[in-house]
Structures are given as structure tokens and as C-alpha cells.
Amino acid sequence: MDALDLILAAVPAADGWLGEQRRAAADFVRRHGLPDTRQEAWKYTSLAPLKSIAYRVAGTDDGAALDAPALAALPSACASPHRVVLVNGQFRADLSSLGELPPGVRVRSLAAALADDAAAIPEVFAPAPTPAGAFAALNSALASDGVVVEIEPGRVLDQPLHVVCAVAGADALVCAPRMIVRLARDASARIVEEYLGSTGNRSLTDIVTSIALAPGATLHHHRLQGEPDSTAHIGRVVARLEANATLHSDAVAFGGALTRLDIDIELAARGARCNLNGLFAVSGNQHVDHHTVVDHRVGDTHSEERYHGILDERSRGVFNGKVIVRPDAQGITARQASHNLLLSRGAEIDTKPELEIYADDVACAHGATVGELDPAALFYLRSRGVTEAEARALLTYAFADKAIAAIPLDSLRQRVEQRFLGHHRLSELGAALAAE
Amino acid sequence: MASNAQDLDTLVGRHYSAGFYTEIEQDTAPPGLNEDTLRLISAKKDEPEWMLEWRLKALERFRAMREPNWAHVHYPPIDFQAISYYAAPKSDKDRPKSLDEVDPKLLETYEKLGIPLEEQKMLAGIAVDVVFDSVSVHTTFRDKLAEAGVIFCSFAEAVREHPELVQKYLGSVVPVTDNFYAALNSAVFSDGSFVYIPKHTRCPMELSTYFRINAMNTGQFERTLVIADEGSYVSYLEGCTAPMRDENQLHAAVVELVALDDAEIKYSTVQNWYPGDEEGRGGIYNFVTKRGDCRGARSKISWTQVETGSAITWKYPSCLLKGENSIGEFYSVALTNNRQQADTGTKMVHLGRGTRSTIVSKGISAGRSQNAYRGLVRIAPGAEGARNYTQCDSLLLGDQCGAHTFPYIECRNPGAQVEHEASTSRISDDQLFYLRSRGIKTEDAVNMIVNGFCKEVFKELPMEFAVEAQKLLGISLEGAVG
User: Fold this and answer.
1) Cβ-defined contact of A364 to B424 (cutoff 8 Å)
2) How far apart are CA A403 and CA B204, in angstroms?
């Protein structure tokens, strides 16, 4: 716990409500410590590997080495006229290029927002902390920078806002940025969050994205975890949807030694709906854990969720999807599926699709499958002269494509496809597809 | 007021203690859980030294354990020191003398289930006349079983008569330290049943009819051990469709099954303990550990359960699939009504190559009840070619109840195939309308639909019980629809 004390000692000082909330959050973390595998929500994910790393909280100077050419060298994703870059959790004006934002769309750094009108921010800093969510509390204590996106009623951000979160510089840094996304009535936007870093970096990213969608608002939230296989990444997305608001979430994870993502969605008013699409493909000793909670608080709310996992070598995947239907929340549809492909001996998947239902007029279903590549399909391809390696690559790609094809943003979809093909010993196939 | 009442109590207590009640005192252990309680139980049962040692060790382990709180159930804390852990079977004096003294509601239920009069008396705890006493029935069955070489006796008797078998298998499936309630049971278990089926023997009868008359008053901490030796088969039916009269609120039983090479055990349960009144007061807490060990190659253990009773059910009949190509099955109907809470399901642990398991779970929630399925499917790295299929469906009757599904799937072998599907819905208006339009009353229509929903499980029950189980569902759902 010494390391944690050191981290907590770095909680930035502030006056007023901000200082108070940071202190309260830090106290919470100090009291409860970080979660361990005795807690249900962390049953399959041990933080023990992080214990031996001497972390320190990233400062402004730590990321200075990452300049424009260095950033360009990182395998970055979609091309968009609106780009924000965070390095080690700090907003970098010199690397960001917001371009010309449509009227009614405001994008700022969190530090700037806190300096401008701190009074408008408080509620997003205070999600009630839970012991299992200690990292979110740690983020509340540490976050001094990040991105704030606000869109006025009826306004549309049609080109995606590309938020690049890079880790760079010294080893073993703790980066704790906070993203805040607020869409007013009938506004709509598309945001791509991409996580990058240079190989060998053992930083820990502890990020919270809080999303508030007013009635009728629509958000496409794409999250691409592509950090090197040495980092730890613990993220939480908290979203609250008002009447007729819609959230599309794509969560793709390829990178990280240890990745944990919690997505908590509250469907708070009638007509709210969410659509969650997830893909994780890992190998080596990577560990990736996705927890989602979709809370149908009132009637006539709808959710749809599909996660695909591909586990190679000695990697381990965890999926825990929970759907809650509150008392009297009638007229609910909720569908959830977790499909997993084990590519090698030594890989492991632990999946738990949960339903907690307290109302009767519901149509809820979930399904989970685990298996290897279909031997009959492999045989079919082999019998037609396709090599074993190609056949496996083709079938693996076909499995992943169900998730990849569901990404509605062309540039991102292509990028995910490339990244997937590069990652998964599928390079031959990648070359063949590129040639087409 | 309070002190007055206390004085009165003392007075009354003293009065009685001088008379009739002293005699009873000797047969009931004072409340409390300690070494002396275990010594008393062990002495009462005339147990050998090793059995007492086993109990004492279990108590030591129990003390180091914490009560589990992960289940989706809520109840006030249990004071384990306030429970009396040994009570001799009721003497004839305490029992109702005839059916006239029995709660008419209970009799009405028996009537609906079509239980014969003599059996009704038995179930209601009436001191039965000599002709129908277990002795006669007992011996007929005993002869037949002995001829086949089957051992079927009370647990206490097995400890005395077959210590080598008990010592070899007791605790080998559910170790003393397995969980809080298993440890408690290991320390204080009262009695239960012991079954041993010798090699290549098919048990000549379903061990059910016998059991129904035999197993009254086995107490609240039952222990059952069933061993099927190589190539044998046994079908065992536990419990009863009729509501059981019982004063003990906490039940913590342990059931251990061992199937050796090519052996098959079919274990069916119909559980209908008192669920408490409409507000859930006074119902039974049923915290059971049931586990089958498919130790031998090609062995098979099949659990079928129909759960309609108890205020709280906490029960996960499981299979350890160790033997190559062994098979585990779990078929369950769990119905909760009023304020009942159930957290039940199964665990299928695939260790051997080519092991297969099937889980079919049907949950029905009505009233203000909470019904949860909790299941684990674990595929170990060595379980090459393992296969699991899980289906769990929940049916909601009423808008105040809850239906929950918590399936855990842990897979560590790429050659395994695991499928899980679950659905939750209510009876559709279309279905009801269709049946109503054909002149079927709403209540009957609901019964028909519910029975159809449970059909896959009922067909696994021994035939006569399947019929009773259907009636039982109808009765348990009375008043739930309207």
C-alpha cells in the first residue's frame, strides 16, 4: 500500500468544492484500498502484477518528449479534422488541432474548464464511490486535466472528435485524465477515444469518461484500446441517458498487459436505448476484462449488447455483462451476447452474462458461447487447398468481423480491421485483403 | 410490565420443570454449539471414536469460517448459539392423535395431491398404527434389497455397521471445509441415509417409496451418502410433494454422491418445505450442499429437482466430472411465490477428457418472490473435448417479483464447447387469450402454460412423481394469478 500512499500524496490541491471532492475521494481510496480478487467484480482480475511496479503520478513535464513527429510515428487511428491529444493525461494544445467546430459545439481541456467556470462541473466529479470502483474514486482524486465536450441543444458534431490518449516518457507513470461529454437536448455527436503508447512503457492509465445525454441526444462513442502490451489500463465509462436518448458504444481492446473496462449505463427515462458492441483480441500474457452494467431504471427502455472475445496463446479474457430491470420498469427489451473464441491451449475465458429482473413485462435474453475454430470449416477450407494457417486466419477474421462490421464509422472500422489483422498472426491474410 | 411477564414466565417454567418436562430435557441438547454438544450427539448415536473426532475437527474448521453473503437472498442474521443441535425423535405423546387434530389446510393440500389416507397420516406426523408401521414395509423392502446386495440404511446405522465404507467416502466429495454450512453439517449432522450399490448391480427398485416412510424426523442436519460401485445403477428420490411438518427453521443438509466406473446415479428431489405465511414469516431456511463425484470413467450423475418450498433456498447440486467421458446433468424447476427467495443452480466442473454436461433450469417467480439461477461451468485445461449446454429460462407471473440469472463460465481448454442461453419473460397475452378463447379458465390456462414451460424437467422425473409435481405447481401457484 506504500505505492498507493505515494500516489495519494500527489492529489493536486484545490479550493472549494473541487478540493473537498478530491479529499473525499482520496480518503475513500485510502480507507478501502484497491480491489482484490475476493471482491466479486474483481474475481477474475488480479492486480497483483501491478504491486511490484513503483508508480508515480505523471507530471506535466513527463510527456514533453512526445512531440508532433513522435506522435505521428505512433500507429494512430482515424483521420478527423477535430483532434485532441492528451499525453499522460495532460491536454496538449500544441498537438491538438480542433479545426473548425460547428456552432454550438464546445471542446476544452478539463483544466481550462475548471479555471473558466468550475461551478458548472461539480456533479460529474462525484459519482458515489464503491469499493469495487476504487479506481474511479482514485481518478476523482487525481484528475486535473482531460477533455470536456459540450454540445448545445439540437447541434450536431458530424465529423468525429478524435481524442488521442498517449502514454510516453518515463516508465511507471500513473495517468488519470477525466473525459466529460455533455449533449443537450437533441444534440448528436461522434467521439473516438484512442489509447496509444510506445512499446515497453509500463504506465497505468486510470481514466473515467462521464457521459450525460439529455432527451433526444445521440452519441456514438468509440473506444479503441491500442496501448502496447506492457501497460495497465483501467477505465470506466459512466453514462446517463434521458428520454429517447441513444448511446452507441464500440469498445475494442487489443492492447495492454492488463486492461479493465467498466461501462455503466443508466437508462434513466422512457425511450432511452443503448447498443453496445465489444471486441477484444489478445495474445501473449495479456489480460483483458470487460464489465458492463445496463440499468433499466424505467419502463420502455431498450438495450442490446454483443461482445466478441478472441484469446490466443496464454492470454485471459473476462466478460461480465449485467442487465438490471428495476421494479415497475415495464416494457423492456434487453438482449446480451458474449461469444468467445479460444485459439490456443493455455488461453482462458471467464464469462458471466447476468440478468437481474424485477419487473414482468420484459423480453430479456442472453447467450454465451465458448469454443475453438470449427474443425469442419477448417477441413472444408483445407480440402480446397487453403493452407492451415490461412484457413485459421480466415475463420478467426470471420469471427471478429461480426464485431468489426458493426462499427458504423468507416475510417475507424478500417483502422480496427488493420490493427486486428496485424495483431493476430493474420498478416498473410491482411496482405491478401490489402491486395484486393 | 416486562418484569411482571418475566416473573410469570419463571413461575410457569419452575412449575413445569418439576414435573413432566424434566424427562424431555434429557433428549434435547441445550441450545449452543460447542464440543460438549458434539460429544452428546455422538454419544446418543453410539458412534465410534473416529466419528466424534471427525465432528470435532469440523467444528474447529467451522469456527474459522464466515457466513457467506454472496447469495441473492436477504434474511435476519442467524444466531448459531441459539439453536439446539440435538432433539430425539418426537415421542408418540407429542404427536397429533388423529387427522382431526391436523391443520385442515394441510389436509386439503394432501387431498389435492391425491395422497392415500395412510400416507397422509404419516406425513402429518401422526403416530401410525402398527399394521402400517415401517417394520412390515421395511422388512419386505429390506429382503429384496439385501438379495441384490444393496446396503440402504440410516446414516447412524452405516457408521456402526459399515465403518470402512463410511470412512472411505464420507467427506470425499464435500470436504469438511467446503463451505460454511457444510462445515456446520459435518460437525452436528443428525442422521440421514446411506446407500451402497455393489458392482454391476442395478438397484431393484427406486429408492423412493421406502424413503418416504423411512425418513421422517431425520432432523435438520441431514447427511446423505450414495455410492454406486462399478457398473451399477440407482435411482434415488428424496423429499416429497406433500408439505412437510417441521419445527426447525434452519436446515443445512449435505448430500454426497460417488459414481465409479460405468456407474449411474439418478437423484431426484421434490422439495416442499414450509415456505412461511404470505408475508414469509416462519418459513424454512434450506441451505444445502449437494455434490456428485463422477469418479469413474463413463460414469453419470443426474440431478433432477423440483423446488417449491422453503422461505429461502440456497442450493447448488453439482457434478465433478473427473472420469473420462463422464456425464453430468441438472434439470431443475424452482418456483417461488409470496415472499419466498431462492438462489439455486448448479456447478459442472469438467476435469476429465470428453466429459459432457447438460443444464436445464426453469425458474418461475410469482407474488413478491425473488428467484435466482446461479450456475458455474468450469472447463479445466485437461478437459479435452468437453461439452456443455446450458439453458435457463425464467417465467415471471406478476409485476412485483424478480427473476435473476448469474451464470459463471470459466473455460481453459480450446477444444471445449460451451453454450449458454437464457431468457426471461412473462406469459404472453396472446397465449392466454388463445386458451381463454377456447373456454379455459385463466387459472387453468396459466397452469397449462407453466406445465408446458417445465416439461423438459418433468420428463426426467420418475413417472408418478412427474404427475405429482405438476399438481404441486398448480397448488403452489394458487392465488398468484388473477
Assistant:
1) yes
2) 56
